[in-house]
TrEMBL record:
<dbReference type="InterPro" id="IPR029063">
    <property type="entry name" value="SAM-dependent_MTases_sf"/>
</dbReference>
<dbReference type="InterPro" id="IPR025714">
    <property type="entry name" value="Methyltranfer_dom"/>
</dbReference>
<dbReference type="InterPro" id="IPR050447">
    <property type="entry name" value="Erg6_SMT_methyltransf"/>
</dbReference>
<dbReference type="Pfam" id="PF13847">
    <property type="entry name" value="Methyltransf_31"/>
</dbReference>
<protein>
    <recommendedName>
        <fullName>Methyltransferase domain-containing protein</fullName>
    </recommendedName>
</protein>
<feature type="domain" description="Methyltransferase">
    <location>
        <begin position="54"/>
        <end position="180"/>
    </location>
</feature>
Length: 258
């Protein structure tokens, strides 16, 4: 089971070889806000007048290094519970919460997303950012229906993901076409309040890839017998960047669960 989770973590971070798992923290050490843009999340909540107070319960599923959780706590003074399966990321999240002065508002734990969702605790806001639903659950339907188990009626979901345009011939088993994706959310009780598109995604992804390349080169120098493994990760990052730039549309959605 642990081995499977480790492989899923690598896949969720755009890798294709489970042997990379122990090196992921080193390869991604220069990246704090892995995935979802914290300012986009804050903007969606503020601009849509989502009520947030001291009693608001926020769950950040697959929180990574805590960039969204920490900055959300800082912006709203709200308590956030962040979970991630990568222990090294959770340690960084705890350190960042302390750095930003929000340690008392942020709780971070190493857990499996699926286990937390099944606990039956209901949250006012759930963030599922840049975590491939098809990797975690196998398909979008199971992912969306599972999320309903942890969101209060009238609560909100923030999702960051990509989709294939309806008139595109591109196919990817990990990604839905837009109308299919919206249909799945609607059939599971979610209403889309707003969707936002990142304008600097390509440049940011290229920057991230370059930082990963630098760290991969360092690891290759230290472990030359595994250089192919590390550089393969860089290649997978480049391929993913190409897909994101040319095949998919990336968006962040704010949904209401009714």
């Amino acid at each position: 089971m642990v081995e499977n989770i480790n492989e899923e973590i690598v896949k969720a971070l755009d890798g294709d070889d489970g042997r990379l798992y122990p090196y992921i923290p080193y390869l991604l050490q220069d990246l704090w806000d892995i995935g979802t843009n914290p300012q986009t999340v804050i903007g969606l909540l503020k601009d849509n007048n989502i009520a947030i107070g001291k009693d608001t319960r926020v769950l950040d599923l697959g929180c990574g290094k805590g960039a969204v959780s920490v900055q959300l706590a800082k912006a709203f003074g709200v308590s956030v519970y962040g979970i991630d399966a990568m222990g090294a990321f959770i340690q960084e999240a705890i350190a960042k919460a302390d750095e930003y002065g929000v340690s008392e508002l942020c709780q971070f734990e190493v857990k499996d997303i699926r286990d937390v969702v099944q606990e039956g605790k209901l949250y006012d806001i759930v963030i599922f950012g840049a975590v491939s639903p098809t990797i975690v659950y196998g398909n979008y339907q199971d992912a969306i229906s599972s999320l309903t188990k942890c969101i209060k009626p009238g609560g909100n979901l923030i999702l960051d993901d990509g989709y294939i345009e309806d008139d595109s011939d591109y196919q990817d088993s990990r990604v839905c076409k837009y109308s299919e994706l919206m249909g799945l959310f609607s059939s599971n009780g979610f209403t889309c309040i707003e969707e936002r598109y990142e304008t600097e995604t390509v440049d940011l992804n290229e920057y991230y890839t370059e930082r990963i390349r630098i760290r991969a080169n360092e690891l290759s120098a230290e472990y030359p017998e595994q250089a192919e493994l590390f550089m393969g990760y860089v290649e997978s990052q480049e391929q993913e960047c190409d897909i994101l730039a040319n095949k998919l549309v990336c968006a962040t959605w704010l949904f209401k669960y009714v």
